[in-house]
Structures are given as C-alpha cells and as structure tokens.
C-alpha cells in the first residue's frame, strides 16, 4: 500500500512540514534527529534545513527515494533507511531528538516502540509526536487509521504512560485544521506531545 501511495505523482502528505513540528522545533534538542515512519521526507528535509543531522526511517523504499529527491531539491542531505519498526534497533543513548508524525501502529508495537525511543534518547534528548485521537472519527477531516483500527490512535493519557520517565513539555488533545496533501485534510482531533529525557 505505502509504496503505491508514495509512487503517485503528487506527494501524498505534501512537501511542507507538520504544523506542530514547526511550532515547537526550537524546543527540540539540536543535533542528531531520528524521524520515524517518515514517508516522503517532508519533516526530515525541513529539519535538515534547520541544521539537524537527520536520519529518516520508513518501511517504504519508494517513499524514502522521494525523501532523498526532496532533500536534493532543497539543497540539504538526510540519511535514509528502509526498516521495519517492529525490529528496528535505534541504539541506546544515540539521539538528541526523535520525531514521529502520524506514525500509527498496532497498540502492542506502539508501546514497544515508544519504550525503545526512551532508551534511544540521550540525556536531555527530546521526543515530538503528533497523532490522531479516537475523537477523529467524530470529525469531518480525512486521515489516520480506518475505524477498524481505532486502537491505533493515541491519547494524551496513553502517551504519558508510554513515555513514562520523560518530562512532558506539551501534552494536549486538540481539534485543529490540517492541510497536508491529499490524505490529511480538514478538521481533525489530534494529540500533540513533546517531552524531554532527564
């Protein structure tokens, strides 16, 4: 599915960075940044333009090829790696920041991944995440898991538990207008989360 979507002529989620990422980028710890489920690279490329040393990972080689092309167009370099997040080794204490924008996964895998993110952050490192909440299904906007995968959405309480041990900077559920390409559009219920490792 993802290779097919990312092979389409237009960028599936546009070429501009996520709004929450732009709003809170100055709160991220500068240095090595890992972007999870990064797709066609819009966020990774923008972070590279801000001076981060970015590694973008995704299961789709097609999406990552588009990410490299976008980076070249914007005059920056990013590292890309096609991985399965179920067994991707992020290392221990390796990253200054980790970014996950609309990276929806089955609950067990998500909890495991988030625990690995905590271990992979350096002391003082930050994680930034935005995801759809279960309330998205009451909103007119497009995007996120289908109703059959409602448990792939996230909540503020759930993220606070999954990232236990980090110090929250922002943890809020909001309804906001999203304009990100063809597949994320309209009024949507989301959770926005930013935290720092002590």
From TrEMBL:
Name used for this protein in its record: Methyltransferase domain-containing protein
Q: Does the keyword Glycosyltransferase apply?
A: no
Top-level taxon: Bacteria
- Tell me the GO molecular function terms: methyltransferase activity
**Listed SUPFAM superfamilies:** S-adenosyl-L-methionine-dependent methyltransferases
Q: Where are the transmembrane segments?
A: none
Which species is the source of this protein?
Novosphingobium decolorationis
Provide the Methyltransferase domain boundaries: 34-125
């Amino acid at each position: 599915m993802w290779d097919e979507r990312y092979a389409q002529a237009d960028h599936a989620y546009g070429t501009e960075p996520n709004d929450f990422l732009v709003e809170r980028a100055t709160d991220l710890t500068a240095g090595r940044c890992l972007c999870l489920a990064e797709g066609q690279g819009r966020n990774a490329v923008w972070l590279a333009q801000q001076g981060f040393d970015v590694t973008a990972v995704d299961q789709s080689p097609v999406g990552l090829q588009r990410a490299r092309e976008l980076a070249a167009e914007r005059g920056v370099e990013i590292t890309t790696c096609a991985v399965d997040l179920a067994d991707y080794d992020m290392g221990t204490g390796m990253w200054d920041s980790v970014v996950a924008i609309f990276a929806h996964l089955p609950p067990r895998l998500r909890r495991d991944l988030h625990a690995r993110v905590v271990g992979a952050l350096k002391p003082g490192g930050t994680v930034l995440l935005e995801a759809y909440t279960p309330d998205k299904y009451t909103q007119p906007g497009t995007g996120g898991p289908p109703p059959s995968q409602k448990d792939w959405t996230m909540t503020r309480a759930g993220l606070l538990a999954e990232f236990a041990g980090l110090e929250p900077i922002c943890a809020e559920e909001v309804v906001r207008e999203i304009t990100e390409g063809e597949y994320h559009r309209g009024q949507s219920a989301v959770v926005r989360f930013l935290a720092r490792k002590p």
